Amino acid sequence: MIVDAGKDNRQRGRKTGAQAPEVNDRREQILQTAQKLFAEQGFRETNLNDVAEQLGFRRQAVYHYFTSKDEILYELMERAGQAVIQATEQMFDKDLAPDVALAGVVRSHVRQVLSDIDIFRIQFTELNKLSGERADKMRAEQASYVRSIAKIITAGQKAGLFRKAHAMTQALLVIGMCNWTSEWFRGRRSHPSIDEVADYAAQLAISGVSVH
Prior knowledge:
This protein folds into two domains: 5-67, Homeodomain-like (Arc Repressor Mutant, subunit A, Orthogonal Bundle); 73-209, Tetracycline Repressor, domain 2 (Orthogonal Bundle). The protein has ten helices and no strands. It has helices at 8-11, 26-41, 48-55, 59-63, 69-93, 98-115, 117-126, 133-158, 167-184, 194-209. The N and C termini lie far apart (65 Å).
């Protein structure tokens, strides 16, 4: 069945395609459907017509909400990045012991990645291929995030808790470990669970930087 953008009000709440998420907001439907297709087919192999077909309406209706496939990708990646920052910022703001703060950051980071694994897999693949102001802004935010983790590690070194080594290198290694979980984790039915993986990652991070 073909649905025009102008028929949105009559179609809200109706399942418009086999893969369409059960949400009321059409813009959110497009985002979620695009995310699923990007994950299954690859970003560069997916076009807006694929998204429209999954939702059961014309391609022109997608353009009513998004000017391009890139715009959809940017919004999905920006959401994912902000989710990580918001989940971990309290660890940076609170007056916590460095080992407690680092463990908390790692747990939060891993939980966010594995709770929305498709978009993080896409982000890890695509961000460095993108250019322009929005891509540069996301990369700058990532760099700031790494520096915040490096500051925790530096504080731990000064307190005699962490070994003396280049803090930025250690921060990058910790983040790399967290992000790599997206490559092998197999979903919510997996063993171990998301929380267990997050706890293991926190233990490994602390063990890796601590003075033994």
